[in-house]
Amino acid sequence: MKKVRKAIFPVGGLGTRFLPATKALPKEMLPIVDKPLIQYAVEEAAAAGIEEFIFVTGRNKTAIEDHFDHSFELESTLQAKGKTHELNDLKSIMFKPGSVTYTRQQQPLGLGHAVWCARHFIHDEPFAVLLADDFIYSKTPCLKQMVDAYERVQDNILAIMEVPDAHVSRYGIVAPEHEATTNLFKVKGVIEKPSLAEAPSNQAVVGRYILDSRIFDFLEKQEKGVGGEVQLTDAFTPLLEEQDFYGFRYEGERLDCGSKAGYIKANLRVALDREDLVDEVSEFIKDVHKISTQQAS
Ligand code: G1P
After folding, report:
1. Gap from CA of 285 to ligand 1 centroid (Å)
2. Nearest CA to ligand 1 atom 10
């Protein structure tokens, strides 16, 4: 029985959509309320039983490494002030020594290239990939749901959501073997960012994957796809000839934190679920709504 113990976090992207905020700050460090995006992804992976965390970083990303390390000055100040709650929060995000690795993607050549950069840390075992931009709000963490499904099928699994026609060209789109009526369904093909005419369905890949290490043999070829980038999705096509792929409809709400609107929605979503914020924030939303409808009329 194969077990998913390792996860890759591609965090080398430039975050140009959030400039100037991301000029000196990695986009993965943007907070949803009071926790950086990358921490949500890491906590999701830990809750799914991941034991080794591999970050594929780039220039200007050292804040991520610092975030997951001790800050002795801060810790001793909190200790001295008796702020034990905050101190425990900080300590809870610490990795077990030796379970975290950082490697660099020296050039932004695409997601497939970023994942390939981590190949030496995976060896011959299945692994997860989490894109922190895809914030998934759910009762059971999305990757945990996928790992549970993996225990049953022991094959490649892609998180899937249905998207409207107008959005198919933004995603990797899968071709289900049969009509996708169950939450776990076999996939016979996948196309990265197809036009509506080319799209085999409306079932889009979301940034959570469980993959077999054989994928590296295909990523190795570094063939460029859409946008002149090495696409992770493109390596699925040759692998599909040897192995099965499943689409997995997770339970939860995906908010695209690579977009400004999605990022704002994610902040509201989390705030409205927080006891310390719900009253003030919902009151504010009502007021803003009232003002905007008055202005419109
Ligand atoms: C990436 C993948 C794409 C997937 C998407 C999910 O695209 O290449 O297949 O559907 O993430 O967010 P990107 O958003 O990086 O262009």
Report:
1. 31
2. 171
**For residue 280, is it within any domain?**
no
E-strand ranges in 83-170 read 100-104, 127-130, 134-137, 156-162
Instruction: Assess contact for 113 and 58: CB atoms under 8 A.
Output: no
Could you tell me the residue range of the domain that residue 104 belongs to?
6-258
Distance 172 CA to ligand 1 centre (A): 6
Higher pLDDT, 142 or 288: 142
C-alpha dihedral sign at 210, 27, 64, 96 = negative
- Nearest CA-CA partner of 129 in 15, 206, 33: 206
CA of 289 to the centre of ligand 1 (A): 32
Residues in a beta bridge with 102? 55
> Is-contact 63 29, C-beta < 8 A?
yes
In a domain? residue 93: yes
pLDDT digits (tens, 9 = 90+) for 271-285: 999 999 999 999 999
CA separation for the pair 110, 56 (Å, rounded):
12
Q: Whose CA is nearest to atom 6 of ligand 1?
A: 206
Q: In the prediction, which pLDDT does 90 show?
A: 85
- Compute the distance from residue 236 Cα to the ligand 1 centre, in Å: 14
Number of independent structural domains in the chain? 1
Q: DSSP strand E in 198-244: where?
A: 203-211
With a 6 Å cutoff on the Cβ, whether 161 touches ligand 1 is: no
Distance 233 CA to ligand 1 centre (A): 9
**DSSP state at residue 166:** G
Choose one of 130, 131, 206 to mutate for the ligand 1 pocket test, by most ligand atoms within 8 angstroms of C-beta: 131
CATH number at residue 206: 3.90.550.10
Does a structural domain hold residue 265? no
